Amino acid sequence: MNSDHSTLTIERYDASEDKSLKAFSAADELILQHCTELNSKNKFLGIYHDRFGYLSCHLNQLNPTSVFTNKSQLSAIELNCKANHLNFSNSSDPISSLENKIGLALLKVPKSLALFELYLQHISQNSTTEVHVIVGYMTRHFSPKMIEIAEKYFEKVEQSRAVKKARTAILKGKKALVEANLIDSLEYNNQTYQQYWGVFSAKHIDYATQFFLTHIKAGHADKHILDLASGNGIIANELLKKLPNSIVHLMDDSFLAVESAKLNVKGENVHHHFENNFSTFNDNTFDLIVTNPPFHFEYEINIQIPIQLFRECYRCLKPGGNLQIVANNHLNYSSQLKEIFPTIEIIAQNDNFVVLKCEKKPA
Ligand SMILES: C[S@@+](CC[C@H](N)C(=O)[O-])C[C@H]1O[C@@H](n2cnc3c(N)ncnc32)[C@H](O)[C@@H]1O
User: Fold this and answer.
1) Ligand 1 within 6 A of CB of 229
2) pLDDT per residue over 109-131, tens digit each?
3) 306 pLDDT band (50/70/90 cuts)?
4) Is the pLDDT of residue 55 over 70?
5) 253 alpha carbon to ligand 1 midpoint, in Å?
6) CA quadruple 259, 265, 266, 269: dihedral, nearest 10
7) Pairing outcome for strands 102-108 and 45-48
8) Which of 155, 148, 165, 168 lies closest to 105, judged by CA?
9) Cα(256) to centroid of ligand 1, in Å?
10) Domains of the chain (ranges, CATH numbers)
């Protein structure tokens, strides 16, 4: 274990310009402190939902496996390890089996409690019977439901005293696993969409998405289409029903979203990408890009990230191609989009949402 924690520098590696946003919280520090107190040396260590790599870097000498859901998370952990001259080799998504049984799991509680439960399922399936789990959270994010879920998997759930407005809970006494299939079903347009726990909008198809689907302008000239931030793939799939000969790409930062989209959108002309940027796409590739873009990242709102994605859209659209966006009215993307696209048109608006069409300069 790195004994001098102050020597490590952990960066966010996202598009955020807000210097007040930190790469770790008091909850991460508390998890680390409790992990150091428990003698964890001979236990196989699993680290869950380590957003930018604070725990993976500080515990690097224990050779942990970092269980991630987001590509951005994985990249940040890799970059922070590299910047601190640490090797990072063990990682896993949260639905694949691990080679070794976990003896100690550290879990930063995600905002989505469905994802929290999916992680506990994974821990339960991939751990020794004596496993201990240290979960950490900021007290303002606490919900009694968190304890209720933890008690489904463990006999004992002991919360610590608050330190710097953070707490941990130690879970002990693993219960027999009640296996769940980890997938929710949603109905839309006479079709059942499936999605893993923790994927965006679990109870119903998002209202902004529904509004978007009734107003997207797409035609047979749109051969190459990208559904950016595709979630369970509903936008791409509904477009494919209208334009079955188009070639459709779907990209999302969330591994579970991409795996969900694979269940819903299939075909030789369908390509799924687990990615959080456009590095794999060439300039001038798409006729049409559609998106209900992300702006919530756990408990933060950050429109710098969608704006950066819109810039990349411009590069990857063909001349004369267009980007269509659905957004909450209050986000007011137009002023920033005007700096990227020469033409922006409102194609639909109601009290809550707006659909924008942004055209790249024709050749
Ligand atoms: C508002 S949801 C839209 C999901 C889906 N298109 C729908 O309408 O139901 C935004 C999605 O963006 C994804 N996301 C967040 N950051 C991303 C990034 N940098 N690149 C691609 N997808 C991202 C999230 O995982 C989430 O699935």
Assistant:
1) yes
2) 999 999 999 999 999 999 999 99
3) very high
4) yes
5) 7
6) -110
7) parallel
8) 168
9) 11
10) 5-174 (3.40.50.150), 186-359 (3.40.50.150)
How far apart are the two ends of the chain, measured CA to CA in Å?
Answer: 57
- 56's CB contacts (< 8 A; 6+ apart) are 47, 50, 64, 66, 77, 80, 81, 88
User: What percent of the chain has a predicted confidence (pLDDT) above 70?
Assistant: 98
Q: Ligand 1: does its nearest atom lie under 6 Å from the Cβ of 252?
A: yes
* CA-closest candidate to residue 183, choices 171, 172, 169, 197: 197
The response to whether residue 294 sits with its C-beta less than 6 Å from ligand 1 reads: yes
Residue 201 Cα: closest atom of ligand 1:
9
Contact partners, residue 41, CB within 8 Å, separation at least 6? 62
Three-state SS at 227: strand
- pTM exceeds 0.70: yes
Q: Which two tokens stand for residue 223?
A: 């051969």
Bridge partner residues of 254 (DSSP): 70
Q: Is the pLDDT assigned to residue 291 strictly greater than 50?
A: yes
Distance 278 CA to ligand 1 centre (A): 14
Write the residue with the smallest CA distance to atom 4 of ligand 1: 231
Q: What angle do CA 196, 202, 206 make, to 5 degrees?
A: 130
Distance CA 126, CA 142 (A): 26
Of the candidates 134, 125, 112, the one whose C-alpha atom is nearest the C-alpha of residue 48 is: 134
Q: What is the pLDDT of residues 206-216, one digit of tens each?
A: 999 999 999 99
Is 120 in contact with 112 (CB distance < 8 Å)?
no
Show the tokens assigned to 7. Answer: 């020597």
Q: Which amino acid is at 10?
A: I
pLDDT computed for residue 3 by the predictor: 43
- Between the CA of 231 and the centroid of ligand 1 the distance, in Å, is 5
What is the 192 CA–ligand 1 centroid distance (Å)? 20
- Which pair of tokens denotes residue 179? 């296996």
Pocket mutation for ligand 1, best pick of 49, 200, 301, 333 (most atoms within 8 Å of C-beta): 200
**Position 286, amino acid:** F
- Count of positions (residues) in the chain: 363
